[in-house]
Design brief:
Elements lengths: L2 H17 L4 H11 L5 H15 L3 H27 L30 H17 L2 H20 L5 H25 L1 H9 L9 H20 L2
Length: 224
């Protein structure tokens, strides 16, 4: 057995273990976490902070954030998935009847790498580098981790799909951050001038994340 076969075997065993840790409550919880529309309020809250902090210059921050997500999404979905063509566990013939699925959701044919993980971690890292608030960093990476894990729970990604997506997201975020640093250094200098005070307030995004999870719990308990 070569290295790739060994990795696939371990990856499959870990997937089956994690995917097997399920319950009716978490079916609804993870299904809602994985839905992109669930987090629109978070994106709007982050947009509010950006506009409030950078004012007229905020357009460049918004563009960089959009580029980060687009780069992460296109590299993961448009490039790597088509090159590698690794079937999702929900489509793997050798796992039929062994994968816990929710609401019949199976995703597209290929799963390496996870665009959900790439987008979430790209968004989390870039906003963390821009906002420079430790408590925001802890919460946003917690959010990204739960989002990524939800894809394993739902049976549409192996752990290595998630790890690959995380790496793509990190590279996309660093690329966009250093592009800002090179092309528009004044934007980061503005943030440096505010680093020792509370001008940049990330309370609204944090509250939004908290309220969103409360809503997800209520949905999981009573409506799923």
């Amino acid at each position: 057995m070569n290295l790739i076969d060994t990795l696939n075997l371990w990856d499959t065993h870990l997937f089956l273990f994690l995917n097997g840790l399920n319950s009716t409550f978490f079916d609804g919880f993870m299904f809602a976490v994985s839905a992109k529309l669930t987090w629109v309020p978070l994106y709007l809250a982050v947009l509010f902070v950006i506009i409030k902090e950078w004012k007229k210059e905020s357009i460049w921050i918004v563009i960089s954030l959009v580029f980060c997500v687009v780069i992460a999404d296109q590299i993961s979905s448009g490039l790597i998935k088509e090159m590698v063509q690794r079937p999702r566990p929900s489509h793997a013939e050798n796992l039929q009847g062994m994968v816990h699925l929710v609401n019949g959701y199976v995703g597209g044919k290929y799963g390496f790498v996870s665009s959900h993980a790439a987008n979430a971690f790209g968004f989390a890292l870039l906003t963390s580098l821009l906002f420079r608030r430790n408590y925001y960093t802890y919460v946003i990476f917690g959010w990204a981790s739960i989002t990524a894990y939800s894809r394993i729970y739902l049976g549409v990604h192996y752990p290595l799909d998630i790890l690959g997506g995380i790496l793509v997201g990190i590279l996309a975020a660093l690329t966009c951050f250093f592009a800002i640093k090179k092309l528009r250094p004044s934007l980061l200098q503005m943030q440096d001038n505010d680093s020792n005070n509370e001008n940049l307030n990330v309370t609204i995004p944090l509250i939004t994340i908290g309220l969103s999870f409360v809503g997800i719990v209520i949905y999981s308990l009573f409506f799923f």
